[in-house]
Every structure is written in structure tokens, then in C-alpha cells.
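Following up on my earlier message about adenosine-5'-triphosphate. Here are the inputs again, as you asked, copied directly from the submission form:
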Amino acid sequence: MDLHKLVKSFRYAFYGIFTALTEQNMKIHFVSAVVVIITGLFTGLSIFEWLVIILLIALVISTEMVNTAIETVVNLVSPEFHPLAKKAKDVAAGAVLVFAIASAIIGLLIFIPKWFEQ
Ligand SMILES: Nc1ncnc2c1ncn2[C@@H]1O[C@H](COP(=O)(O)OP(=O)(O)OP(=O)(O)O)[C@@H](O)[C@H]1O
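Thanks, got it. Here's what our run produced:
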């Protein structure tokens, strides 16, 4: 195993996370995640509920990062307006929206009953 290569891959991956965090949408997802985690700490969640919340947060952020990667490649290969560039960007953005909406619904299904039982 090439340890040097492995360390380099991790460094690039962390740089990718840092780069993605400079995007406005990622900042919104990040702040939302922090708000959800703080709300979860105050509400009191079971281990299973935390697993679901952490998985959803990680998947929304990962989906947004893949969307950013797609946007960047599209900008590289098609800086001018092109209907296929539009299709790629809109579909990638739609994928994030689908996951974000589903996550918000699942989050509310976890939190709302707990708020009303207290
Ligand atoms: N090269 C292109 N050809 C056709 N349509 C495009 C192109 N670039 C962007 N668009 C359209 O504009 C929308 C927004 O694009 P994009 O996300 O790149 O801009 P933005 O909102 O300024 O993003 P960011 O600020 O995150 O770079 C796309 O979803 C797409 O509909």
C-alpha cells in the first residue's frame, strides 16, 4: 500500500470539501445541518433517529457537492449557452432539490411528534 498516495488522496478530498463550502448553496446546507443537529440535541433523539438524521445530512451535502462538480465540468466544456449544458445543470440541481425536500419531510416526521409529546 502506497501511504504517501493515500495521504495525498485524503488531502485532495479535504480540499474538495473546503472548496465546495465556498459555494453559497453549500453554506445554506451547512448552516441548516448545524441547526438540525442543535435542534436534535435539545429535542432528544434515539440512536436510530440520529443515524437517519446524520445519513440525510451527509447525503444532502454529498448530492450538492456532486451537483457542484457537474456544474464545474459543464462550465469547462460549455462556457457558452447550450441546451445540453442547461439540461445537465437543471437535472443535477433537480436531484439536489428532490433529496432536500425528502430529507426535510423525513426530518419533520421525526421532530414534530417529539415536540408535541413534551
Ligand atoms: N452554459 C449554459 N448553457 C445553458 N444554460 C445554462 C448554462 N449555464 C447555466 N445555465 C442555466 O442557468 C442555470 C443556473 O446555472 P448555474 O448554476 O451555473 O448558475 P449560478 O446559479 O450562477 O451558479 P453558481 O453561482 O453556483 O455558479 C442552470 O440551471 C441552467 O438552466
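One observation from looking it over: The longest helix spans residues 83-117. Hope that helps, and feel free to reply on this thread.
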